[in-house]
Amino acid sequence: MSELIKNKAIRGVAWSAVEKFARQGLMALFTILIARQLSPSDYGLVAMLTILLAIAQIFVDSGFVEALIQKQDRTEIDFSTTFWFNIGVALVIYSILFISAPLVASFYKEPLLKELLIWLSLLFVINSFRTVQQAKLNIAMNFRRQAWISVIAISASGGVGLWMAYHSFGVWTLVWQQLLQNFLNVVLLWISAEWKPTLIFSKDSFKELFNFGSKLLISRTVDAIYSSGSFLLIGKFFSPTVTGLYSQSIQMTSLMPQTITDIIARVAYPIECELQDKEEELQQRFFQMLRMACFVLFPLMMGLAALVEPVVRLLLTEKWMAVCPLIQILCFAWIWRPASHMNWQLLNAKHRSDYCLKAEIIKKSIAIVLLVIMLFFGIKTVCFGVLAYFIVDVYVMTRFTRRILSQVTFMEEMRNLLPILLQAMLMGVLVHFLKYLIYSDLLLIVSGIFVGITLYAGISIVSGSVEIRMLWGEIRKRNR
Asked: Do residues 285 and 271 touch, judged by C-beta distance below 8 A?
């Protein structure tokens, strides 16, 4: 890889990491503080709407952002066409959800859901104004500005949400916090991106972008139906409390995987698009980025599984302790998120969004069957079903990636990742035994983090990990 691309990758990862960790860290902090005041049923009510909100947001995006990034000869006409299309779709979706709100409330037999859906649906109208601005910054790999925007928007909305939670606004805290955060994000993006739409909508531009983006739209819709469908089914067959526990377990276990995956993926995608015709270099860069993402993620997830009880007890209080076994199971599921997403992204970089669609249909068909079966055996079994699905996900994706890059196979990815996983699991087991020596939750968490980092670094050095040598080399290079 050329020195220019390497430097772009390093700077991009650094600022993407700052943006994502600042964003997710602040969101986690406010979520914890707010959750201490709200009940699981409050989160359960919002979770019941997850499938509708997730699918609607996908239709607003329509895969046009990825289409803009992968297109090498993009023009201002392309950007304006995308902008007006997104706004039009958002207004149509809001109208549909507004009309459907009474039916949704009747389906769940929860009258409050009518008002909640009407207000939460405004998110799509708000977010439709930011798509192109964010795409512009991503293409330029300007994650520094996005970092500041995220910090300001989350801090302000989180402060308002915290005030509402402590003044007994209940579930409306979660609604207004999201609306304010997204509104501030849009305003700051418009100020920062320095791009304004023109009154142009090109049919030719739309057809070209939609030809690529439509396949992503369908594949993401299929993914959202499965991912959010669990909330719909659990919300229908179980109580709001059980739904809230499942929602919180997903939220706590998906936070780190999605953050780390997004950090790497946001930088990797523009670079992979540049290297799309250099197969050997593309394969090399893919495995390097995948290993680095998992080298960081695996120990974090094993550490969370080992320390989940003191973490939940200290941060969320005793009323949330029933969520612990769910989190432990899902920790082993979400570790495969980087492999799944980065394979999907690799297909897009090679212009094979059709393969993405075929893969989604196959793996989600399997996943839905798993979900329906597991549902009859309780919430823990549903979590085991999620674990099985993530492994199936990676396997199916690699059946398609190997068609475009012969070395990107399931066995080759496992060969690269399993040594890292075994190192992380060994560290997690040793940290787990600390609970028999330390009885203070705070001291156990602090000791567990220190011991975990020391053990993982030591195991990685002894095993000759390429990733730790690479990280150490970059640190020494930057300190010269």
From this structure: yes
